[in-house]
Amino acid sequence: MPTVTAANAADFLAVVPHLVGFEPRNSIVFVAFRGRRTCGALRFDLPRFDLPGFDLPGPAGSDDAGRRLHKRVATTLVGTLSKLQGVDAVVPVVFTDEGFGGSGPPREHFVAAVAARLEFSGFTVRDALCVASDGWGSYLDDRCPAEGRPLAAIERSGVLDGLSADALRPLGDVAGWAALPDVGAIDCERVAKLVLRFAALVDGTPGCPIDPRVARAIGLPRAQGPGDVPSTLEAILRIDPGRIEPAAAAFVIAVVRSPALRDVVMLQWAFDLETGERVLADAHRFALGAPADALPTAGLMLGRGPRPDPARVETAISLIKTIAALAPRRARPPLLCMLAWLNWALGRSSVANEFVCASEAIDADYSLAEVLRMVLERGILPEWAFAGG
Fold first, then answer.
1. Where are the domains of the chain?
2. What's 159's DSSP letter?
3. 334: closest CA among 173, 185, 195, 239?
4. 60-69, 112-121, 192-201: which has the minimum mean pLDDT?
5. 229-237 and 273-287 helices cross at what angle (nearest 10)?
6. 130: helix, strand or coil
7. Name one Pfam family in it (predicted).
8. Which residues fall within 8 angstroms of residue 233, CB to CB, at 6 or more apart?
9. Among 265, 282, 220, 191, which Cα is nearest to 211's?
10. What pLDDT digit, counting tens, does each position of 138-161 carry?
11. CA atoms of 324 and 178, how far apart (whole Å)
12. ∠ CA(101), CA(104), CA(109), 5° rounding?
């Protein structure tokens, strides 16, 4: 995002959604600074302290328990922030459907715990802000009205007015990002039939060409000849999502039925062809008895290693969304989990969660969905999300 200067808190709050890419709801966002400039933003779901097992500070003798809970959650969130390199100051911002209601900003006890933990960890807390349903304000401003300041001040901010349409991307919507495109029923029927044909013809052995019948159906150039799975996948990635033929979509659906080949597709399309070949080779080593933690590519799934090319990942997401829309419903969980992982790789955990939920609705026991659910619930982010540069 181009450099903009926020003259006041309302301007700053107008910018925050563009730092995270969408309008946060029921979230706490840590806007991180190196010196005077922002260097990143981390968004977390706002903790639900009204759930069973949680105690809020209150007059019924639960103050100590509530404070301990706030401190525990704050410690976890600040621990994640601490992985960002070179951060020296933070502004936590709460976005909530709750209101001031004439009683001051909501979540005051929780934000106090967050600010205390930030300062304890060596960060300067430049401000702590709240955008509620009926107003906005600063937790650190004693003059903030009990009913909050008018939201119109944020809406009227002109801090972004000078930016071009190219520089200022439209704010995303989590549900919109997770929606699959509309596809034709006839194409879906053709894909379903081809998946059944291709399932028995896919051989993931490294270097083994794909079946010539599959190559002809996909329409690979004759000069290229039938390649192996990774080279065929690389050719498919270059297809415009809006123009993918049923045969190419069916090939991908048939391939990802195998967990090992699913990981090849996912990591190759996130990184490059060489990565796909290495992941495939590691899958065969694992099948022959090599321990998973000894495989050179094992860390990539956990977000360890070089950062993938965001543009390539976005291309893969667009293509897989179309393929998932064309796939029979029962065949979608691998594709939905791939979409979850790719969004997680870009730091979009909220979108990843939508895809995991969609996979769980079809197959509650799908193994990759279970792994991703654990990752998301623990707030784990890929290590490359914290790398400088």
1. 9-169, 176-386
2. T
3. 195
4. 60-69
5. 150
6. strand
7. DUF4192
8. 252, 255, 264, 265, 268, 269, 276
9. 220
10. 999 999 999 999 999 999 887 777
11. 11
12. 120
Find where tokens 């498919």 sit.
Answer: 236
More confident residue, 262 or 288: 262
The pair phi, psi for residue 89, each rounded to 5°, is -150, 155
- 224 burial type by CB count under 10 A (0-12 exposed, 13-18 middle, 19+ buried): exposed
Q: Which of 241, 255, 236, 245 is nearest to 187 (CA)?
A: 245
Q: How buried is residue 355: exposed, middle or buried, by Cβ count under 10 Å (0-12/13-18/19+)?
A: buried
Rounded to two decimals, the pTM is 0.78
- Give the start-end residues of each E strand in the chain: 27-34, 37-45, 89-95, 124-125, 129-131, 136-138
CA–CA distance, 134 with 153 (Å, rounded to integer): 12
pLDDT over 60 (residue 389): no
Least confidently predicted of 22-26, 54-58, 269-273, 329-333: 54-58
**Cβ atoms 256, 204 nearer than 8 A:** no
Nearest 5 degrees, angle CA 18-CA 127-CA 388?
55
31 has which bridge partners? 41, 91
Longest dimension (CA), the chain: 78
Burial of 57 (0-12, 13-18, 19+ CB in 10 A): buried
- The neighbouring-strand residues paired with 269 are none
Q: For the chain, count helices (H), then strands (E).
A: 16, 6
Q: What is the DSSP string of 170-213?
A: PPB-HHHHTPPPP--HHHHHHHHHHHHHHHTT----TTPPPPHH
Joined tokens for residue 121: 């960890």
Among 377, 376, 385, 335, CA closest to 358: 335
- Residue length of the chain: 389
Residue 55 has pLDDT above 50, yes or no: no
Cβ(90)–Cβ(125) under 8 Å? yes
- Segment 174-216, tens digit of pLDDT: 888 899 999 999 999 999 999 999 988 876 666 677 788 888 8
CA atoms within 13 A on the CB side of 261: 20
